[in-house]
Amino acid sequence: MKLLITGLNHRTAPVEVRERLAFDAPSLAGALRDLTARPGVSEALILSTCNRVEVAVAAENGADPESAVEEFLAQNRRVERAWLAPYLYRYQDEEAIRHLFRVAASLDSMVVGEPQILGQLKAAYAAAKAQGAVSGRLEAILTRAFSVAKRVRAQTGIGENPVSVSSAAVELAREIFGSLAERRVMVVGAGKMSELAARHLRRSGVARIYVTNRTPERARAMAELFEGVLVEYDRFLNVLPEVDILIASSGAPFYLLRKDQMRRVLEARRYRPMFLIDIAVPRNIEPAVNELDNVFLYDIDDLQRVVEANLGERRSRAQQAERIIAEEIERTLARLKARELGPTIVEIQEQLEGIRRAELARHRSRLGPLTAEQEEALEALTRGILNKVAHGPIAELRRQAGRPGGWEVVETIRRAFRLDE
């Protein structure tokens, strides 16, 4: 069984590429069914966030999971495979486990130590589990990743004073305006990212927070939570001239604010400066808006500068976390070895025992009557031969199982003994 992770993230692909690959929640079920129907794919998980899209699969030996996943992404997201390939990274077996553990522990995040990714990974696992897409080796590695992330956070404190993309957006606003005490802010979208942004803004002492969302109930709940002002979704453009800072993180699949609309907003504001932060993927604000005077538009990739300022203090904790992950990989490989090797060893022993008994039965009539001592000696002789025959393959199984690529040797031995027939 092979494990493969194929994906792209904020380091390998710009936001305009990531947004074309992103999966929204309603599309996940169908995408997982499509993926697990591909030849050789036994288990699958799709993780899609603002900063990454990753596909993890467990595949049968002899299958070509790399091609299967790339074809799936190209067809499902309606892009050319040749266009997509340069942005992708691929990890197999032990390196795939390492990558998954690092993602769960937020060591591969734009903001090292941020807590959101673990929840997003758990949600992706729940979606895959609901579709029956994980049930074996991949599921065991995923559940182990959750435990590893918990240990990293508990032992390193890497999540203390957490910095998220939302807080980085607020830090950028503070750089532009200085104090935010007299500023008015509108948050478009009532999801987790929006809630975190509103929480940081409230702590920064903004004068007023406007909240709007396609689902009025969610917008109303968040407005009440932060003592904000609820704005009807179809009227937020009318209120926008009163706003100094706009934070957009809606799940809308199209632009909510275009250049011509923003031009009219500026006219109503008498061209006073306005700061726009688009932390949505796909983006909510048309990039051409940034061409207007007195408009400062930043997307999620622009937040990297703010994030970098916070990495220094976390580097030593991240190094400690890497050591923990290295330990956990060894333990995980040992567990997988025990879990997957045991049945193979039993099957080899049972097959050889069956051959031994069949050959004894076939030749017993030629031996004539045997005494109890002779019967016992014959049993000991044939069992000894069986054990010597089995010793070499079983010893090699145990040596190879925990090594990178060692499962290919395991599968070769299984084929040699015809265990899968």
How are the SSEs placed, and which strands pair?
Elements: E1 2-9, H1 15-21, H2 25-36, E2 41-48, E3 52-59, H3 65-76, H4 81-84, E4 89-92, H5 93-104, H6 116-130, H7 137-156, H8 165-177, E5 184-188, H9 192-203, E6 208-212, H10 216-225, E7 229-230, H11 236-239, E8 245-248, H12 259-268, E9 274-278, E10 295-299, H13 304-308, H14 315-367, H15 372-400, H16 406-416
Parallel strand pairs: 5-6, 5-8, 6-7, 8-9, 9-10
Antiparallel strand pairs: 1-3, 1-4, 2-3
Helix pairs in contact: 5-7, 5-14, 7-14, 8-9, 14-15, 15-16
Describe the structure.
With about 425 residues, the protein is an alpha/beta fold. The protein folds into three domains: about 1-160, 2-Layer Sandwich (Beta Polymerase, domain 2); about 165-310, Rossmann fold (3-Layer(aba) Sandwich); about 335-415, no CATH class. The chain contains 16 helices and ten strands. It has helices spanning about 15-20, 25-35, 65-75, 80-85, 95-105, 115-130, 135-155, 165-175, 190-205, 215-225, 235-240, 260-270, 305-310, 315-365, 370-400, 405-415, and strands at about 1-10, 40-50, 50-60, 90, 185-190, 210, 230, 245-250, 275-280, 295-300. Strands 7-6-5-8-9-10 form a six-stranded parallel β-sheet, with helices on one face. A four-stranded antiparallel β-sheet has the order 2-3-1-4, with helices on both faces. Helix 5 runs antiparallel to helix 14 (about 315-365). The longest helix is centred in the last third of the chain and has 53 residues, at about 315-365. It is elongated, with a radius of gyration of 29 Å. The two termini are about 15 Å apart. The mean pLDDT is about 90.
